Automatic annotation (TrEMBL):
InterPro entries: MazG-like_dom (IPR004518), NTP-PPase_MazG-like_N (IPR048015), NTP_PyrPHydrolase_MazG (IPR011551). This is MazG family protein. It comes from Actinocrinis puniceicyclus. NCBIfam families: mazG (TIGR00444). GO terms for molecular function: nucleoside triphosphate diphosphatase activity. It comes from the Bacteria. Pfam families: MazG. GO terms for biological process: dATP catabolic process; dGTP catabolic process; dTTP catabolic process; dUTP catabolic process; response to stress; TTP catabolic process; UTP catabolic process. Residues 144-226 form the NTP pyrophosphohydrolase MazG-like domain.
């Protein structure tokens, strides 16, 4: 009876000792003979430890030569196991397919030796970024700094926002494909900055440090998930987040940590949110009853804001600058209210 040929590829993104149970049984079974064209394959030492017979082909042999040899063994009744190289040995798989396509009873099987863990492909990005940044890589990538990349970080973030706001990203199709691509561009910026940071002469850090830091932050900021705290609503979660963040950073004011360089609209919104969560009452300009009545949903509010921008332009006023000035006044009002409240409590 003719035998079979089993190709066993291993993921280069996991530790060599992490072998699937089915692949391990196949490679270490009674009378098993393992073949490979990679004498330095990382899984070979583990097989050698359990006295598995290993046949290493000459690296100079062609894929068709190796395919013919494996087929001859299988035709003689052997069960041939081939450990694929880190690149998957695609040329050999194609050669085997071409030979076996002409007939015969030999079975060609694929049995993964290991499987990628979720997030494993991020390692591919790290490897590519390392190659681009290293000597002999890309001259442009090698010249970049944290500061020179700032504009790209902002551009990619805005493009992602635009893709989401255009809709159609929740259903299969071009919109969802575009979102996947834009998220990849944002991830590239993180990997790029982390790779640059890794080169610092006295205080280096890399992508693992970045990931470790945010993972620990998420655990610490979600005590209702990873601890014994209670947060029944999204508002409770948000309040807990701000409180824990303030404690971690030793903040004494609701306005600390609010970047004033952000767009004026988001700046004003952030300051109003901070004041609300801190229980600080503010004196704010009021909408007319007529304007408020016409702005009862997102579309209405959008028209109201657009009208305000148009009015500003008619007066020759930069609306971004005007709102930023008002937001700075809002920040000063929050600080003044905090100071007054602290003085009342201490008195």
């Amino acid at each position: 009876m003719p035998g079979r040929i089993v190709l066993v590829p291993f993921s280069p993104r996991v530790a060599p000792g992490l072998v699937s149970a089915s692949a391990w049984r196949l490679m270490t079974g009674s009378g098993a003979v393992v073949h490979t064209g990679s004498p330095d394959h990382p899984v070979l030492p583990y097989l050698d430890d359990v006295d598995v017979q290993i046949v290493v082909f000459d690296p100079k042999a062609s894929a068709h030569e190796i395919a013919r040899d494996l087929i001859d063994q299988a035709e003689a009744g052997a069960s041939v196991v081939w450990i694929a190289a880190q690149d998957g040995d695609e040329a050999l798989a194609q050669a085997l397919g071409e030979h076996l396509a002409h007939g015969g009873e030999i079975e060609l099987e694929l049995l993964p030796g290991s499987y990628d863990l979720p997030g494993a492909k991020v390692l591919d990005l790290v490897a590519v970024m390392d190659r681009l940044r290293s000597p002999g890589g890309c001259p442009w990538d090698g010249e970049q700094t944290h500061r020179s990349l700032v504009k790209y970080l902002l551009e990619e973030a805005y493009e992602t926002v635009e893709t989401i706001e255009e809709g159609a990203c929740d259903e299969p199709g071009p919109g969802r494909d575009a979102l996947r691509e834009e998220l990849g561009d944002v991830l590239l910026q993180v990997a790029f900055h982390a790779r640059i940071a890794q080169e610092h002469p006295t205080d280096p850090f890399g992508i693992d440090d970045v990931a470790d830091g945010i993972a620990k932050k998420l655990v610490g900021r979600h005590p209702h998930v990873f601890g014994g705290a209670v947060a029944d609503t999204a508002a409770d979660v948000e309040a807990n987040w701000d409180r824990i963040k303030a404690e971690e950073k030793g903040r004494t004011s609701a306005v600390e940590g609010v970047p004033l360089a952000q767009p004026a609209l988001s700046l004003a919104d952030k300051l109003l949110k901070r004041s609300r969560n801190a229980g600080i009452p503010l004196e704010l300009p009021a909408l007319t009853a007529e304007a408020a009545a016409q702005a009862q949903d997102a579309a209405g509010v959008g028209r109201l804001l657009l009208a305000a921008v148009a009015h500003a332009r008619s007066l020759g006023v930069d609306p971004e600058e005007a709102l930023r000035g008002a937001a700075r006044g809002l920040r000063d009002q929050i600080v003044a209210r905090e100071t007054s409240r602290d003085a009342t409590v201490s008195g």
